Amino acid sequence: MSKMDNLRAMREARYDKAAARAKQAGGSEPAPVAPARVATSPAPEVVADASAEELCGHRNMSGRTCTREKGHAAKSHRYG
What is d(CA 31, CA 28) in angstroms, rounded to the nearest whole number? Predict the structure, then answer.
């Protein structure tokens, strides 16, 4: 076997292993999400800030969201 054949075989084995693990874990079923805690008395400042300023919401590959304002003119996103 050549070096490329070995690499191809290793890649296919890794792919098969990952596919089997995904199938065993449940496949396309989403992971359960814990319910959010409900504050008994939210601070008025926090509620006012959240409603007054909406965020961009763009997500990067790792799942972080952009913290700039919605519709920002900057070309890049800011993940915080």
Answer: 9
* Burial status of residue 36 (CB atoms within 10 A of its CB: 0-12, 13-18, 19 or more): exposed
For 15-48, what is each residue's pLDDT tens digit? Answer: 999 888 888 876 555 666 666 666 665 555 554 4
Burial of 13 (0-12, 13-18, 19+ CB in 10 A): exposed
- Which residues lie below 8 Å from residue 59, measured CB to CB, with a gap of 6+? 65, 66
